[in-house]
Design brief:
The strands form three sheets. Strands 1-4-5-8 form a four-stranded mixed beta sheet. The chain has a four-stranded antiparallel beta sheet with strand order 2-3-7-6, with helices on one face. The chain folds into three domains: 7-115, Butyryl-Coa Dehydrogenase, subunit A, domain 1; 119-230, Beta Barrel (Butyryl-CoA Dehydrogenase, subunit A, domain 2), CATH 2.40.110.10; 231-377, Up-down Bundle (Butyryl-CoA Dehydrogenase, subunit A, domain 3). The radius of gyration is 21 Å and the shape is globular. It has eleven helices and ten strands. It has helices spanning 7-24, 27-34, 39-48, 66-79, 81-100, 103-114, 229-265, 277-305, 311-336, 347-355, 364-376, and strands at residues 119-122, 138-142, 145-156, 163-169, 179-185, 191-193, 207-218, 222-223, 267-268, 271-272. The chain starts with 6 loop residues before the first helix and ends with a helix. The chain is an alpha+beta fold. Helix 7 packs antiparallel against helix 8 (277-305) and helix 7 packs parallel to helix 9. Belongs to the acyl-CoA dehydrogenase family.
Length: 378
């Protein structure tokens, strides 16, 4: 794995790899079939502190660089993309507060995670996917409270989160400048969750609706100022996209690993199929694409750590890694031949897991718009 990481992260990487081999990789096969959320696996991960990697050091976190975290997250994704998505989505839920929240809010979400909780980010609605500004959820000021009403959908960690960062309209007359961001803790009256989505892939990740029915929250739950919610959400997604690229890269790496292992074992025409140049060229192209995606992820995260503009690089990382994850997974199936199409073998799962990385955190079509706008101007 060609990330340049700290010695501390190298030690952690060895631990994460061992944990994933012993507690995640094989165990998740059963949950991929049942679609259940594997609480016992996450409980073990929480014991190791793997769910809290993105908590800043000043709030009690490990103090790792983003590139350090990427190496660890990719290792999780190699074992199971749904597992890595759950971990990463918790960091996503925290990002709006870290970007624009008060010190008290930042400490609160950090404490909730360090205590074993997860976060969730609630932006998408049934009528507002790529057009996130079309959301209908409202927040009405009532004295020293806000009352929230609406429905969010496809929320990762929705049913298992300890807190939610939720966008809601506070002034319908102002369009996107009338959207605000709120921090809502689980258990707040009026907040409920829907059924877990029966998904094609990343089936060890919980995805459901989050419903708000006269959900009263204190005015102090406002993140930033009224009208800043859409801007906060876009800044959040600018960061989050790179992490999705990281997980997609892990899927691709798993495809390479499985294709090589199988190619060395499968004998045809008196020799391992991996000895055929046609398949060697496939492996070479898989490696080229995967390593390019990995380095784009590392570059975007390095720019974040340095405080440099990174929106274009983050979009490239997510878009490219999502696309090549599908390509590499497909080629891994091809190396396996007919067996690759069977659920008895591991590679068919990879293409099911990979597809969502061309869709969520902004579809890859949206990423291309973001990239184009950054290159040629609006």
């Amino acid at each position: 794995m060609a990330y340049l990481i700290s010695e501390e992260a190298q030690d952690l990487l060895a631990d994460v790899k061992k944990f994933c081999e012993n507690e995640v990789k094989e165990q998740c096969k059963e949950y991929d079939v049942t679609g259940e959320w594997p609480k016992e696996i996450y409980d073990k991960a929480i014991e190791q502190g793997y769910h809290a990697l993105e908590v800043p050091e000043e709030f009690g976190g490990p103090g790792l660089s983003r590139v350090d975290i990427a190496a660890l997250l990719e290792e999780m994704a190699i074992a199971d993309a749904g597992f890595a998505t759950t971990i990463s989505a918790s960091g996503l839920g925290m990002k709006p507060v870290l970007i624009s929240g008060s010190q008290e809010q930042k400490q609160r979400v950090a404490d909730l995670i360090l205590e074993g909780g997860f976060g969730a980010f609630c932006l998408t609605e049934p009528g507002a996917g790529s057009d996130a500004s079309a959301g209908k959820t409202t927040a009405v000021k009532d004295g020293d409270s806000y009352i929230l009403n609406g429905r969010k959908c496809f929320i990762t960690n929705g049913a298992v989160a300890s807190f939610y960062c939720i966008t809601a309209m506070t002034d319908k007359t102002k369009g996107v400048k009338g959207i605000s961001m709120f921090l809502v803790e689980a258990g707040t009256p009026g907040l409920s969750t829907g059924n877990h989505e029966n998904k094609m892939g990343i089936r060890t990740s919980n995805t459901c609706d989050v419903v708000l029915e006269d959900c009263r929250i204190p005015a102090s739950a406002l993140v930033g100022k009224e009208g800043e919610g859409f801007a906060i959400a876009m800044k959040t997604l600018d960061q989050a996209r790179t992490w999705m690229g990281c997980i997609a890269t892990g899927i691709a790496q798993r495809g390479i690993n499985e294709a090589i292992a199988y190619g060395k074992e499968r004998i045809q025409f008196g020799k391992p199929v991996i000895k055929n140049q046609a398949l060697q060229f496939k492996i070479a192209d898989m490696e080229i694409k995967t390593e390019t995606a990995r380095q784009m992820v590392a570059h975007a995260l390095t720019k974040m750590d340095l405080g440099l503009p990174f929106a274009k690089e983050s979009a490239i990382a997510k878009c490219y890694a999502g696309d090549i994850a599908m390509e590499v997974a497909s080629e891994a199936i091809q190396v396996f031949g007919g067996y690759g199409y069977s659920r008895e073998y591991p590679v068919e799962k990879l293409i099911r897991d990979a597809k969502i990385f061309q869709i969520f955190e902004g579809t890859n079509e949206i990423q291309r718009i973001v990239i184009a706008n950054n290159v040629i101007g609006r």
